[in-house]
Amino acid sequence: MLKKIWTRAGSVRMVIPLLIAITLVSLVGVIVPQGTPPVEFYDNGWREALIVYLGLDHLFSTWWFYALLGLLSLNITACSTSRQFANVRKAMTPHFLKRIEDAQALKSSAEFAITAPPEKAAGLFSSHFKRLRYFSASMDYEHGVQVAARSFCFKEIGSLLFHFSILFFFAGGIVGGLRGFSFVKDFCQGEVYAIRDWKYLVRSDWFKIEKNIDGTVSDYTSKLTVLSPDSTPVFSRIIEVNRPLSYKGLRFYQNSFGEQPDAIEKAVLRINGPALGPAEGLQGVFPFNTSVRLPGNGLMLFIKRFIRDFSLEANLGDLMPPLGRPDNPAIRVVLSRGKDTLYDNWSFLNSPVISQNGYTIAFLKFTPRYVTGIKISHNPGAVLIWLGFALMTLGLMLVFYFPHTSYWLFITPAARGSSQVTIGGLSGRSRPVFQEKFNRTCAFLQSLFKEGA
Amino acid sequence: MHHGPYQSIDLSFFWWSFLAYSIACVLYVAFFGLNRKAIARAASVSMGIGFSLHTAALGSRMMLIHHPPLTNMFEYISLVGWIATCFYFVTLKIYKQHILGAFIAFTVFMLMASGSLLPKDAQMQLVPALKSHWLQIHVTVASLGEAAFLVAFAANIMYFLKKLLPVTSRFSARLPETQTLDSVAYKAIGVGYPLFTVGALFAGAIWAEQAWGSFWSWDPKEVGSLIVWLVYSAYLHARFVKGWTGVRAAVLSAAGFTCTILTFFANLILGGLHAYG
After folding, report:
1. In a domain, A222, yes or no
2. In chain A, N or C: fewer CB atoms in 10 Å?
3. Backbone phi, then psi, for A407, in 5-degree steps?
4. Chain B residues 20-49 within an 8 A CB cutoff of chain A
5. With contacts defined as CB-CB under 8 Å, which chain A residues touch B1?
6. Which of residues 70-129 of B touch A (CB under 8 A)?
7. Where residue A127 sits, what CATH number does that domain have?
8. Residue A155 pLDDT > 60, yes or no?
């Protein structure tokens, strides 16, 4: 009973609908944008409800998509164990034709006479095919001896490898999903980062954008240094897109490059207020996140926050009307004297200033702080995926480029110890190519006896 | 943008090759009507001239941009058309049937026509992600596979015509036997499937891992390629195990090519990681 279920699970009747189902589902996954909330591409209605209910906006990570892949892997496992191994075993045993007419009916067939009795000829033919690594056997038929020979079972082994390779891909995906991780870390210049559970640190020494003459980006480049836990440099490597760094199970990819969205190097500010005297106030360059004493008045200025693209809802509540610009940098500045905070408010680039306790701070210019985005990835399933690539490539080569060839020879006794041979051949090769090979084989088989004579 | 001494030469060669392919198709239409071998031979000569000009177009574009012309849709279509024309000559050599060549020539013409409608600006500088030797491997081997699928599709079309036209029809009588057409389609898929698997899926996945840090991202083009692979896998599985030939096999094969075309244009409609041009 269990064997029957297992055989059914590995049947073509199961795999074809499964392949069609996965194809159709994947098609839906292509049409419905993935990772986008449905409200962004559909109006409220039954379509959105359906998308949400079935999880079509994240289709490739839904339980039912995994279930389909699970069924496919079950099918492949069942097919491999119940059918593929049996096919290999079967291919190692040449099968015989029922009648001499079956050999004559083949597109490649011939007849020739030899000067040897059928038994001796059968032995010589079998030895010849075995020397060529063919599986060969002989048996008596009603008028003489039949020799069957079949080339090595590359195709069947290829098919077996092909099926197993898919399991390797699934296993690699599962292992990578369960045991691996991947995230992007934005590095400032000189920043050191300790990766959890890994006994080393990584430092970004420098990074740069190389540009073409026309101003387009030629390459993003970062120099990374691996440090031991006591911060001793172990080795350095310049990485770029398509040239990641691999070190002790982790891979570091050049992922992105840009301005840090929440920090700057410095800002140009103009401060006005009672303690600053003249009407034009004080203008200066101030570093980010560092307290600076203003000259001659005991005031301390501290830029405590920066937002690259400010939006009203997220950052300000109802304090300010929306400025309506997508690129809207803002800084939060604190001005204090001793323990008294005189000013603690937002300032927007080239926009009206906010007044607090008689002080205003205008945000005139800023120098962005650049970061290099390094993707840090650990994928213990990668080895299995590479094995899958190798097995499937080998399997495909064996299936498609090593076609099988079979010969059947009916040896009928003739006068004075000689025999008449009827030979038929079948091959997965193209007709003209095989016909040439068949003719050569016939000539060689005949020559075996001429030499003997 | 075009720059340098080869400015527009590549496009001139492209248009001349397109003209030669068009003339070949007109001659093949005449061949359908008049059934003269001389006309079919003239069409083959025209295909040969078109192929030479097409080779010059690809070569001069490569000299212009200093890298193989594989980086946008126009260049890719042009390459697939060029490979399909190679297959046209191979098919003519093996089967020696002008009518088979005629249908492949029509598909090449359709491909070139759709390519002619796309933006043809040469990308002088590659974006960082495309600066890899995997670009050549991935795109060239995948296009070899897709060109083979195109040949299979041409055989499928002929198969359907042979089945649909009345047996008494003169045109039907001139079409190759259904077994031959089935065999051409199968052999073309037999050539295309391993190439597509290795070129489109494996080389693409390996390159994606190097450039983006992930073998697979469920990008529309990736999923499209997977769909193509699944459909042709179903075709081969049904053929090997269940012995499917004839109409059912032809329908599955044609469905595979339809998916190939949809995948071809997937990034134009749906964007994603492959949206380079």
Report:
1. yes
2. N
3. -130, 145
4. none
5. 214
6. 94, 124-125, 127-129
7. 3.30.160.110
8. yes
Kindly provide the ipTM of the predicted complex, given to two decimals. 0.89
Say if residue A324's pLDDT is above 50. Answer: no
Confirm or reject contact between A15 and chain B (CB < 8 A): yes
Residue A405 contacts residue A425 (beta carbons within 8 Å): yes
- A94 in a structural domain: no
Range 295-334 of A in CB contact (< 8 A) with B: none
User: What gap in Å lies between CA B142 and CA B146, rounded to an integer?
Assistant: 6
Q: Is residue A432 part of a domain?
A: yes
Together in a domain, A288 and A363? yes
Give pTM, 2 decimals.
0.84
Is residue A29 less than 8 Å (CB to CB) from chain B?
yes
Domain that holds residue A11: 2-84
Nearest Cα residue in chain A from B129: A241
Structural domain includes residue A164: no
What does the pLDDT look like over B9-49, one tens digit per residue?
899 999 999 999 999 999 999 998 888 999 999 999 999 99
Burial A298-327 (b: 16+ CB within 10 A, else e): ebebbbeebbbebeeeebeeeebeeeeeee
Q: How many domains does chain A have?
A: 4
A279 and A254 share one domain: no
In a shared domain, residues A36 and A66: yes
| Residues A350 and A317 occupy one common structural domain | yes
Which residue reads 């029957």 in tokens?
A4
Cβ of B241 within 8 Å of Cβ of A34? The answer is: no
Tokens 């490979």 correspond to: B83
